[in-house]
Design brief:
This protein has 485 residues and is of the alpha/beta class. It has two domains: 282 residues, Hexokinase, domain 1; 145 residues, Nucleotidyltransferase, domain 5 (2-Layer Sandwich), CATH 3.30.420.40. Helices cover 44% and strands 17% of the residues. The protein contains 15 helices and 13 strands. Helix 2 crosses helix 11, helix 8 crosses helix 9 and helix 11 packs across helix 13. It is globular. The N and C termini lie far apart (93 Å). This is Phosphotransferase. Its main location: mitochondrion. One of its GO terms (molecular function) is hexokinase activity. It comes from Salix brachista.
Length: 485
């Protein structure tokens, strides 16, 4: 009897330590609506600062020089090249002149050989141009010869670029495993077009954009009320339409439309109002880019799994409820976010998927249902915080452009007195599209921050492949303007 009591006492002490760690996590990740509104305000303030001067904010607020978006009236055949990682894609779309009328769409994906990622810019672009030429010839074989018009290409290049015009941008630095030294500081479009000339391909790069701008273009093509685009996947970023006269750092900026798409680079947003834990601090300090991309490290798919891993490791070091400390728990990024989603959304009575992932990925086997439920709870806390912060970021954009229902009013008028226009945010990325609980928490937070009267006018519209199709649509849009002009 005494032995049983002693065992129960030890079990109680063990769980008491676990509960303390969990409570600390929950408190550190708390996102009450008051705090979320502080994040909204901070986002809007940083946007203002980034538009006022270069380096005035952690938000880069990069000018894209995209001042016209597709209207749906575009007609013809257009191409896109999408280079943003270890694969690139070429696309061809046919447009029928009615909104949402993409008559046909052809895509080819091509992995970039490893050696070309560290070779020369000429080698890389010669490979891309030859693939593009083969694609064009294959797609156009057997079709009617096109008029004497040079083929128009939208070039989506999702690496850090300093743009000086719609078609002009200098590579700032490489990411994602590329290290082609002779290309840093060079004009990206010039290198591509020189390679197309060498390959004998009659094609013109109409513009240079990044994936968020492509998503915005695709959103606008389908829905004229689209004013912003957000990507929440492995990484995260946002862009939106800003009034040209609000871009103070580029005084005298004139656009015929009166607006310009601004690439926020919002992954680098930071505010003291963000709920940061010791796990976030450790993850940041051990990352290749400490003190950088703070917002991204709290909300994107690249990092959520690793935060969960760090919490489980901490509990394992303080208690043996997960059994002996698994060596796999010390491997950074071994637990990827899709596995977090699978554990979080496991609805089997015995949480079999949770048990399987703990065993196969983290080397933790034979744990009780109570411990499996604990793992689900950790996933829930980390994901909920991420989704609610992402929602606050979106509302921050809406606040900056007067679409959050406040209308910039003073004098005691309530939100319900302000006529709210329908507002569409195009959204892409697997974290949002594939993770139902993340999506549910994000939508719930939008409703809380805005209030249901306003939130009903805000639509998050999923788009697919903005980085590719959007580039081609922008080429079509600018081609139409040139033909009219």
């Amino acid at each position: 009897m005494k032995r049983r009591r002693f065992t129960a006492f030890l079990d109680w002490r063990k769980w008491k330590r676990v509960v303390r760690v969990l409570k600390e996590l929950e408190e550190g990740c708390e996102t009450p609506v008051g705090r979320l509104r502080q994040v909204v305000d901070a986002m809007a303030v940083e946007m203002h600062a980034g538009l006022a001067s270069e380096g005035g904010s952690k938000l880069k607020m990069l000018l894209t020089f995209v001042d016209h978006l597709p209207t749906g009236s575009e007609i013809g055949t257009y191409y896109a090249l999408d280079l943003g990682g270890t694969n690139f894609r070429v696309l061809r779309i046919q447009l029928g002149g009615r909104r949402s009328s993409i008559l046909s769409q052809d895509v080819e994906r091509q992995p970039i050989p490893q050696h070309l990622m560290t070779s020369t810019s000429e080698d890389l672009f010669d490979f891309i141009a030859s693939t593009l030429k083969h694609f064009v010839e294959k797609e156009e074989s057997g079709s009617e010869p096109s008029p004497v018009r040079t083929r128009e290409l939208g070039f989506t290049f999702s690496f850090p670029v300093k743009q000086s015009s719609l078609r002009s941008g200098i590579l700032i630095k490489w990411t994602k495993g590329f290290a082609i030294e002779d290309m840093v500081g060079k004009e990206v479009v010039e290198l591509l077009e020189a390679a197309m000339v060498r390959s004998g391909l009659d094609m013109r790069a109409a513009l240079l954009v990044n994936d968020t701008v492509g998503t915005l273009a695709l959103g606008r093509y389908h829905d004229a009320d689209t004013v912003a685009a957000v990507i929440i996947g492995t990484g995260t970023n946002a862009c939106y339409l800003e009034r040209a006269d609000a871009i103070i750092k580029c005084q005298g900026l004139l656009t015929t439309s009166g607006y310009m798409a601004v690439n926020m680079e919002w992954g680098n947003f930071w505010s003291s109002h963000l709920p940061r834990t010791s796990y976030d601090i450790d993850l940041d300090s051990e990352s290749p880019n400490p003190n950088d991309q703070g917002f991204e490290k709290m909300i994107s798919g690249m990092y959520l799994g690793d935060i969960v891993r760090r919490v489980i490791l901490r509990i394992s070091l303080e208690s043996d409820i997960f059994g002996p400390v698994s060596s796999r728990l010390s491997i950074p990024f071994i637990l990827q976010t899709p596995l977090v989603a699978a554990m979080h959304e496991d609805d089997s009575p015995e949480l079999k998927e949770v048990a399987k992932i703990l065993k196969e990925t983290l080397g933790i086997s034979e744990v009780s249902l109570k411990v499996r439920k604990l793992a689900v709870r950790i996933c829930d806390v980390v994901t909920r915080r991420a989704a609610r912060l992402a929602a606050a970021g979106i509302v921050g954009i809406l606040k900056k452009i007067g679409r959050d229902g406040s209308g910039g009013t003073t004098g005691g008028r309530s939100k319900s007195d302000v006529k709210m226009r329908r507002t569409v945010v195009a959204i892409e990325g697997g974290l949002y599209t594939s993770y139902a609980m993340f999506r549910q928490y994000l939508h719930g937070a939008l409703g809380e921050i805005l209030g249901e009267d306003v939130a009903q006018h805000v639509v998050l519209q999923v788009t697919e492949d903005g980085s590719g199709i959007g580039g081609a649509l922008l080429a079509a849009s600018y081609s139409s303007i040139l033909q009219r002009g």
